[in-house]
Structure formats: C-alpha cells, structure tokens
Structure to design on (376 residues):
C-alpha cells in the first residue's frame, strides 16, 4: 500500500529528509509543507556556510563525516558546480589562551584531517589582517570548506521534485491529529492525511510537537548575529577564515566582503530573528582588537536561530511514545554541513526503522529522541 509521508519545514533539514524519503521509497507520496512563502527563509538562509568536520558533539561529527560523500560525489543532475570550495580555518590564541589552543588541538586530533599547529607568520600569510602583536599561538584546520548553501538546498529540491515529491508553501501546520488510520494535518491552506509525520521545523520543533499532542523534547533556540563589511582587498578567495581560541568572534572571507560574527548564543523564542546593534558593536570591538581591519561601517546584517538540545546533539528518529511522529530537529550550528547524512538517517528511520549499512558507524544512541526522555 502507498504510504504518505508529511514533512513539516522547508529548511535544509526538511528538504534533505524529503529528498531521501523520495529515494528510499519511490512508491511513497511525500509532501513537504512550509509555513513561509519561500523555502529556506529562516535559519537555513542565514548561515555562515562552513563545513568544519572537527566541530560539535561526537554524534554530530559522525553525521558530518557521513555527509562528505554527498559533497564530493553529488548524484548526477542535482548540481551545476561543486558544492564545496576549500577554505582553511585558523584559530588564533593570545598568551592567556594557550590552554584553549591545546584543548582545540586535542579535540581535533581524531578528525579525518587533524587540527595542526602553525607559526604566527604562517597564520599572517593566510589571514593578512591578523594583528600579530597579540597572537602567541595559531592552529589550522585544513579540511574546512565553504558550502554553496543555496545550491545544496536546491540540489535536494531538484532531487525531490525529480522523484515526484510535492512541495506546498504558505502552509503553516496548525494541528496534527492522530486518528485510527494515520494523521490528519490541518494547515493554513487546507487539510490532508498522512501515515507518518516528520517534524523538521527548526526553532519551532517543540511548538509543532505540541500541536500534534506530542511531548516537547526541550529545544532551546539561540540567536546568532552576522554582518558583512568591505574587505581590505578586492578578492579574498585565498584568505583563511579566522576565529579566536575562545570562539568569541569569527571572520569568514566572502569575495570582496568579510562575514563577521560575535559568535553569540542569546536564548530566544522561535521567531523571525533580527540582529541587535549592541551585538554588532561587540563583534566590531573584538575584531578590531584582534586584527588590523579597523572596521568602521557595516554593509548588511542579519541574525538566525541556532536550535540546541540540552546535550547539543541532534534529535533524529521516532518519538518513543508515538513512532509515526519522527523528529529531525536540534541542528544547532551544524545543520547545513550535516544535512546529507541527517536527512538520509531521518528517512531511513522513518521508512525502514533502522539505518542502512552506509550509516552503520553513526552513534545512534546520541541522536535518538529517547535519550532525552529518560526518567530522572
Ligand atoms: C549566523 C549563523 C551561522 C551558521 N553557520 C553555520 C555553518 O557555518 N555551518 C552549518 O552547518 N550550520 C550553520 N548554522 C546553522 C544552520 O544554519 C542550521 O543548523 C540549519 O539551517 C537548521 O535548519 P532547519 O531546517 O532545521 O531550520 P530552518 O531553516 O529554520 O527551517 C525550519 C522551517 O520550518 C518551518 N516551520 C516552522 N513551523 C512550521 C509549521 N507549523 N508549519 C510549516 N512549517 C513550519 C519554518 O518556516 C522554517 O522554514 C548557522 C546558523 C546561523 C544563524
């Protein structure tokens, strides 16, 4: 019998899951519903677009590693150009931050490409605006890359549509009711039925769960600010990304501009996040101390919500109380880079109840929702 799968949310989590569902069960009717007029309007459209394997919790790193094959061998017809361009990441440390540098080296030691120490002059060569008078030590990640986020999202859209997937926008899900023969889903534009519901609604993950009478998982959306300034040179493709050892600011070169952030994590309700002047001012102060950029004006700014669980790992898999309600939330600061494997895992757990051979090495226990529902 044909099964109907409803995916709530058209960010990177929802569309990557939709694509994988349509691949794994070509007979299924897969419908993605998005509240906004356009897909990827919220956090997905507001990221720093970095792939950084040695970042995040162990289970999240596993998802990033399992995603690499999709980036390097993207299925035929989904992209017009490579999704990644290599860009090293340098962490710079003052004399007082030497312990943090040691921690980062140890933390990145088991990556496919381990974190390595470099000289301050080598760091200056890769980021020519570094204020070397304050830097005592520097380390480099050379496996990091810029992701073309829009092309990645579009690749999943193309693949999903090619497999007859259906996308409905301006259709906020207002309720999902469990009935004898599946779910009744009411949206802003009408109602439809589904056998399985996949919750990929980002910062709204717990709101959507409540609307389906499912116990919330305990999601914490946190605002992160970003802004663009003019780079001191016309082209920065050879420049590394730079942050400080305490991750209290970062700078990511982007053509003739530099993307800057105070790396803030301010708790927020689910909303259309906006940047605050004071967060931008704080980042400028920190960056002007650590570099010779002397930033005086900002070209554009934005903010987005990075949504975390209490253990900062993702939540992927069936709800322990209602197995036809599948979670794919808690992407935090790594939802873009992990999306190929996270979408695949969500779809496999929804359709087959277990991961395939290619995802067998993942730490499933660290991802399943049941870990957050243990009795105290
Ligand atoms: C400044 C910043 C920098 C970042 N940098 C990186 C990075 O370098 N690398 C990386 O991997 N990640 C990064 N991230 C994190 C990454 O952007 C997120 O993890 C990811 O985009 C989350 O995707 P999502 O699909 O879960 O959420 P979203 O993109 O927010 O999508 C959720 C969707 O669900 C929809 N929705 C909500 N409620 C309903 C409803 N009731 N009915 C229908 N639809 C609904 C929303 O409208 C939204 O479109 C960054 C984030 C920020 C803010």
């Amino acid at each position: 019998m044909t099964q109907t799968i409803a995916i709530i949310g058209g960010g990177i989590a929802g569309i990557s899951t939709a694509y994988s569902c349509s691949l794994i069960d070509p007979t299924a009717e897969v419908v993605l519903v998005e509240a906004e007029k356009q897909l990827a309007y919220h956090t997905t459209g507001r990221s720093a677009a970095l792939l950084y394997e040695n970042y995040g919790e162990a289970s999240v790193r596993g998802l990033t590693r399992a995603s690499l094959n999709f980036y390097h061998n993207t299925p035929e017809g989904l992209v017009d150009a490579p999704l990644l361009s290599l860009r090293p990441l340098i962490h710079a440390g003052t004399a007082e931050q030497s312990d943090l540098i040691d921690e980062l080296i140890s933390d990145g030691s088991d990556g496919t490409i381990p974190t390595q120490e470099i000289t301050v002059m080598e760091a200056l060569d890769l980021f020519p605006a570094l204020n070397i008078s304050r830097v005592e030590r520097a380390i480099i990640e050379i496996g990091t890359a810029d992701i073309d986020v829009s092309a990645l999202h579009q690749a999943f859209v193309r693949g999903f549509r090619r497999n007859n997937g259906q996308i409905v926008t301006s259709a906020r899900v207002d309720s999902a009711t469990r009935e004898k023969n599946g779910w009744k889903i009411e949206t802003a534009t009408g109602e439809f039925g589904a056998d399985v519901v996949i919750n990929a609604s980002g910062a709204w993950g717990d709101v959507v769960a409540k609307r389906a009478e499912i116990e919330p998982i305990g999601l914490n959306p946190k605002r992160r600010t970003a802004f663009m300034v003019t780079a001191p040179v016309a082209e920065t493709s050879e420049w590394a990304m730079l942050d400080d050892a305490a991750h209290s600011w970062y700078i990511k070169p982007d053509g003739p501009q530099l993307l800057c952030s105070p790396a803030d994590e301010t708790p927020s309700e689910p909303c259309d996040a906006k940047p605050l002047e004071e967060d931008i001012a704080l980042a400028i102060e920190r960056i002007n101390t650590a570099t010779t950029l002397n930033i005086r004006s900002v070209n554009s700014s934005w903010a987005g919500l990075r949504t975390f669980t209490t253990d900062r790992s993702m939540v992927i898999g069936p709800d322990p109380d209602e197995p036809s309600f599948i979670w794919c939330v808690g992407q935090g600061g790594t939802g873009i880079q992990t999306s190929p494997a996270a979408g695949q895992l969500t779809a496999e757990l929804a359709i087959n109840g277990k991961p395939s051979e290619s995802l067998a090495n993942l730490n499933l226990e660290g991802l399943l929702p049941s870990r957050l529902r243990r009795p105290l």
Q: What stands out?
A: The CA atoms of residues 73 and 293 lie 38 Å apart. Residues 4-78+148-219+310-372 form a domain with the FAD/NAD(P)-binding domain fold (CATH 3.50.50.60).
